[in-house]
Amino acid sequence: MVRRKTVGGVCFDVINGLFMCLLFILMIYPFLYVINFSVSTLSETTGTLLLLPKGVNFKAYAVLFQDDGVLHAFLVSVARSTIGPVLMLFVTGMAAYVLATPDLAFGKFFRAVFVLTMYLSAGIIPTYIFIKQYGLLNNFWVYILPNLCSAFNLILIKTYIESIPRSLQEAVYMDGGNDLQAYWKVIFPICRPVNAAILLFGILNQWNSFIDTQMYCAMTEKLYTLQYVLFNTLSSQTNIEALKSGAMASSGQTLKMAITVITVVPVMCVYPFLQKHFVSGIMIGSVKA
């Protein structure tokens, strides 16, 4: 028997739908504005809402793609956003497998130590000294090595592994296998959902990071990331070098919008393929720690 909705229920659905549409517009319009501004003629954008581009002009993108510094920064960001998350998943996953072992000697102590790092930090100066002593200043590996293990990601993977029946690992041992084979041949494929979530976290963290560039690689322009170039562009009142070389048809403001779009689009391309694991990855660690 189909129950008819009451007048109050219908009104609630209508109001809820209108509210969600308004919320969607408020969230999507800033992105739409940046995209439209980046391809519009500056003289036609003053004091107007940009629902569509006005006076379509792609010269800002032409200037950016002709600038070797921007292209090199894009490649550096791509490199750290691929190498970093993959190596982080490799190291963190195996550490989580070890900590998930029920009969691990001093297991509770090691788990407590990892959790403690989430609440306590050495601080900026000790970290800088540590990075300097290991020769990572002005070195590409400063983007990779300090992020190889994350306590938060470790707890997520460990919790997921603990939900897998122990009998699967014991079957590998009975067939003459070892822990390394048990992890890579059995546990790792089963952990695909949490691995995808961790990989997404790592990609977003590496792609959006620019503080480490400012602290450790500010003196080496060839290690600048795209986000750091964006930071310098947004915080500067002058145009980038490509604009100074004669491309005066594009304003500094238009260039800022264009480079903002360039930094956002790659994430928009990657996220749809991994977003279904995003929420599940967060909820995994909330079951138990």
Structure description:
With 289 residues, the chain is mainly α. The chain folds into 2 domains: 57 residues; 225 residues, MetI-like fold, CATH 1.10.3720. Helices cover 66% and strands 0% of the residues. The protein is built from 14 helices and no strands. Helix 7 packs antiparallel against helix 8, helix 9 crosses helix 14 and helix 11 packs antiparallel against helix 13. The chain is globular. It starts with 6 loop residues before the first helix and ends in a 5-residue tail after the last helix.
Topology:
Layout: H1 7-38, H2 59-66, H3 68-99, H4 107-116, H5 124-133, H6 151-162, H7 166-174, H8 179-190, H9 192-208, H10 211-216, H11 226-235, H12 241-244, H13 252-274, H14 278-284
Helix pairs in contact: 1-13, 2-13, 3-6, 3-9, 3-11, 7-8, 9-13, 9-14, 11-13
Give structural attributes:
single chain, 289 residues, mainly alpha, 2 domains, 14 helices
Give a short summary of the structure:
By secondary structure, this protein is mainly alpha-helical. It contains 14 helices and no strands.
